[in-house]
Amino acid sequence: MTDAGPTGPLPLHRPRRLRRTAALREMVAQTRLHPERLIAPFFVVPGRSDRQPIASMPGVARLGVDLLLPQLERALGLGIRAAVLFGVVPAGVKDARASAADDVDGPVATALREAKRAFGADLTLITDVCLCGYTEHGHCGVLGPGRHGAEVDNDASLPRLSSMAVTHAEAGADLVSPSDMMDGRVAAIRSALDDAGHAGVGILSYAVKYASAFYGPFRDAAGSAPSGGGDGPDAPPRDRASYQMDPRNLREADLEVDLDEAEGADLLMVKPAMPYLDVIARVRARSSLPIVAYHVSGEYAMLEAAAAAGLLDRAAAVRETLTAIHRAGADLIFTYYAMPALENGWLDAP
Ligand code: PBG
After folding, report:
1. pTM listed for this prediction
2. Does residue 271 have an active-site annotation?
3. How many Cβ atoms from other residues are within 10 Å of residue 56's Cβ?
4. Left if phi > 0, otherwise alpha if psi is -120 to 50, otherwise beta: which for 230?
5. Which runs of consecutive H residues, i.e. helices, occur in the chain?
6. Which is the closest atom of ligand 1 to the Cα of 295?
7. If you measure from the C-alpha of residue 219 to the centroid of ligand 1, how many angstroms do you get, rounded to a whole number?
């Protein structure tokens, strides 16, 4: 018996040829994440010199405006071009109509004015437009009577959201980003902005936002969990399933995208990111608008917990995660890793 030789012709195509060296791999890489693709989220509180670490999101803190500004400067220095601001106010000022949401002296409006003054057009300022951080019950809209107890009243919420968007635009927002999932809010906000002389302020719509378990840490951070506001038969639900999308639905994303485009959205968001890569790819294929994905708080907390437990290599896992979201079709990514990843070189090829 002779030694067994090759049993057939050698393969003509060997994809491994282009994987041999790091230089070759760099040369043919098909996805590259640049700092300007990352958008850094910040939680802003009213007090000066206030820094409140968020237990469920290690490394993230709520900041007073004076502490926020140096962070924005750092972000710019890292090559980040945009920040999104979430306001956090004390429970005492929350009420049924979310009065603090359009307070011109609230933390978001104040931060916008100061950041615009400091950074001008260099930094794109985006604001979250939603009532959940400002209502006493934690829902994203105002409540009204429903057939089976209190319900989030879609149409009564639109003027409040529009007023919040106008307040942000007046204070210096470049883009307003409605995350409430009320029907018709893009059209309502668009006409309110136009009427107020802000035709140039864009709308980054959370077009495709699922009712997800992965928002838990954010709700801790923002104090915005839907608490129901009572236990009686008329109490509103303790979840957002009556307005955010059902995670089982994909085709419904097409409907939301088409509606928001028709209503005048300038950019479209898919949220969360990692468990919804199929949705990101589909929305990318359907729309020619820029697509944004939100790598949300629970996704961040999960990676942080695994890395802290020594179960994952943080740098490699963050790089792979953000690259995968970009590869799936997200032009831009909201991520709590924006600054740490750039600061520590986690996105660089190994
Ligand atoms: C407000 C809002 C939420 C998030 C962004 N905007 C919370 C929610 O819908 O309950 C979640 C962001 C994150 O989890 O990082 N509606």
Report:
1. 0.95
2. yes
3. 17
4. left
5. 22-28, 65-77, 107-119, 154-171, 185-195, 216-222, 251-263, 277-286, 297-308, 314-328, 338-343
6. 15
7. 7
**Total residues belonging to the chain:** 350
Which among 37, 198, 219, 271 is annotated as catalytic?
271
Residue-wise pLDDT for 69-81, tens only, equals 999 999 999 999 9
* Residue of 128, 248, 135 whose CA lies nearest to 177: 128
The rounded Å distance from CA 211 to ligand 1 centre is 10
Phi, psi of 109 (to 5 degrees): -60, -40
What gap in Å lies between CA 253 and CA 241, rounded to an integer? 15
pLDDT digits (tens, 9 = 90+) for 241-273: 999 999 999 999 999 999 999 999 999 999 999
Q: Are 29 and 73 in contact (CB under 8 A)?
A: no
Judge whether 240 and 105 are in contact, CB under 8 Å. Answer: no
Report residue 312 CA to chain centroid gap.
24
20 CA to middle of ligand 1, Å? 43
Q: Which two tokens stand for residue 281?
A: 């790819």
Query: How many H helices and E strands in the chain?
Result: 11, 12
- 116: annotated active-site residue: no
